[in-house]
Structures are given as C-alpha cells and as structure tokens.
Amino acid sequence: MTHRISRAPRRTARPSKAPRSPRAPRESTWRLWKDLSPLLRLLILTQLAFNIGFFAVLPFLAEHLGTAIGMAGWLVGFVLGLRTFSQQGLFVVGGWLVDRWGVRPVVLAGCVLRIAGFAWLGYAEATWAVIGAVLVIGFAAALFSPAVESEVARQAVVWEEEGHGSRTRVLALFSVAGQAGAFVGPLLGALLLAVDFRTACLAGAAVFVLVLAGHLWLMPQHIPGRVRVRERGGVRALLRNRRFLALCCAYGTYLLAYNQLYLALPDEVQRAAGSQAPLSWLFALSSVLVVFAQLPVTRWAGDRLDLRRSMTAGLLLIASGFAVVAAARPAGWTGTAGLLPAAGFVVLLTVGQMLVVPAARAWVPDLAEEGRLGLYMGALSSVSGLIVLVGSAATGSLLDPDLPAAVPWLVLAAVPALAVALLPRREERTGPADTP
C-alpha cells in the first residue's frame, strides 16, 4: 500500500505526544535513536560516514594543489569552484534520478564514483587529472546526498505520523551526525597527512567502500511507500511552485549567511587578532555547539514553534549575530576583546542554523509534488547554492576597506532579517499529498 503524507498541519499531530519529563540530553538522544526504524538508523550513520570520508580529504586539497602540485592560486580557486558546482549545482539532477530509479541504485552509484574519485585524486599529478577527479568527487555527492536526504525526510514524516514526535527531531539527529563527521574527518585527515596526501585520499575512499558494502547488505531493494515516477513535467511544476521557491530563497539567505564563516569572519579575525589562527577555534566552537545542542534546541522548538516560526526565529538570530559585530566594529577593539564579537557571531549563527536547517528540510515534504520529493530536496540545495554563488560576489565587495566599519555587517544582518518575509504563510499542503 502506498503511503500518503498527511495534509494536516503539524500542530494537529501534537496531542498524540505524551508530556515530556525532564531528561538528560544523552538519555533523550538514546531514546530517540531506539525509536528509529532500522532504515533511518542506516541513513543517519551513512551521513556520519559520508562526512568523515569527505572531510578527511577536502580541507587539505587547496594546500596540496598549491604546494605539492604547484598550481597557481587562481587555478586552485577554479578547481575548488568546479568541485562545488559539480556537487551543489547538480543536486537537482541527483534528486530527479532518485525519483526515477529509487534510493538504493543512486546511493550505490554515488559511492562507487566517490571511491573512484578519491583514488584518482590520490594519484593525480597533471592538472587535467586533478580536475577530472574533483568533478567525479563532486558529482558523486550530487547523487547520494539528495537520495539520503530525501529518504530521511520522507521517513521522518512517517515517524511523525506514527505518533513518535515531531519530524524535526529526526532531521536534527541527521544534522548532528553530519556535523560530527565534519568534526572527526579533519582530525583523521590531519593524522593521515603525516604520511602523505595520497594516504588520506585512499583512507577517504576506504570509508566509502564500507558505506557501499553496508548499503549493498542493508538497504532494501524496495522501500515501502516509495514509488518511482516515470512521467516528465516535474521540473515545470517545481518552477511554478511559488511557495517552494520562496522557501528556497529564504533558505538560500541562511546559506549565504553561513558562507560568511569563510568570507567575512576571516577578515574580522585577521583585523582583531593580527592573524587567522583563532579561526580554527571558532570553527570548532560551531561544530561542538551543533553536536551537543542541536537535539535540545530542536526539542525546545518542536514543543513551542511550528516550522515557519522556527525558521523565523533562526533567521532573526542569524541577523542578530551580524548586528553584534556591526555594533562593536566602531570601537575598533583588538586582541581577546576584539575576538568576542566574532565569537558571539559564531554562536548566534550556529543556534540560528539549528533552528533553520531541520525546519526547512521538514517543510519540503509538505510543499513537494506527489512522487517528486527527491527532485525537491535536490532543488532546495541547488537553488540555494545558486543564491550563494550570486550573493557571495556581492557580499565580497562589501568588505572594501573604504566603507565604514559597521556597514558590511549591517547589510549582512539585513539579508536574513528581510528573508523572513519570503517564508510561506501556511504549512499545510495545497496540492496532492506526496508519495515519494
């Protein structure tokens, strides 16, 4: 029997939940994990493994290209941009393939490509070989990430409708797994680099060999409730779905703000500390916050806020993070005191992220056309990535030293604050129920 996602708003499912008793975060996480289906556990562990393998290699790629291979700086940037485009820009293609062929074959194909790409990169020395390996690595993620994300979102809706609680709790655990992998991966890569870059690449490939073996053994051939869509027309319907595109635009402003960790924040840290050495500590602070606070924040928001209010609160917190730096810039503080506004920005941005990301992913199934959840999850990333690509050029120009110190940060604060107006007004579906 085909599962159909309920048309009712999320609030209607609330009475089925028993009142919560205070628990330690560790106990609550374990209880949540035990409640999940075997398929959800597999997908969440997959996200953890994906990020461990990916971040064991990619953070060290730029230095390898510049020093070991001797590429010019502009060429290094071009290669990294190609990797981003082949991944983020093609998520919508991966999502379409998931809807047409199912989760299992797309994930397996993505794992095979990632293994080949990492192995190729480890031995690549010529520019053309490096570019080919990087494109394969990026396209691999464009296959398996939409597959895993869309199925996690679909299973989270099923989990919610069975009375276990808000779907955002499952998606929050998915985010925690990804962030934990992003934290562990660079540590593993740094250890492997003591040997050489090729060893790190082969270790990353080995992680994906394990993921491939796990999915060959554990991923069902057919997932109950998922049907494959053969007819065309999904992209045209998506482009006419104004509510979904509005969500993409709002989510894109979050990603643009998050991208300032790599654009505006290094500039501010350099000004305050005289070097970018404190950046690693600020990145670690963000990762640790997500790993330990994501689930408590999601539980709190799930008991008090619907999806729109959760995203609104998150975007406003992100805006306030930029405003903190803007308020402190005229004082010109340096040293430890000068780094405090940057730390405040990282904390507020990260807490805002904890509210925005699970809510956005949980909202997509309510806006997606029947049978097209993979396409819509992929489009969420691709459209948002396009916004970041265009917006990054504009925000980069804001860092012109001739501008008043607070102006760039005030403009950046205005972007997520104004994006609140883009959020769809209603959560319930207006079209047919989704049958991914």
From TrEMBL:
Keyword Transport included in the entry's annotation: yes
Subcellular location: Cell membrane
Compositional bias segments (type: Basic residues): 1-14
Record flagged with keyword Transport: yes
TM regions (residue ranges): 39-62, 68-85, 106-123, 129-149, 170-191, 197-218, 244-261, 281-301, 313-333, 339-361, 373-394, 406-423
Protein name: MFS transporter
Gene3D superfamilies: MFS general substrate transporter like domains
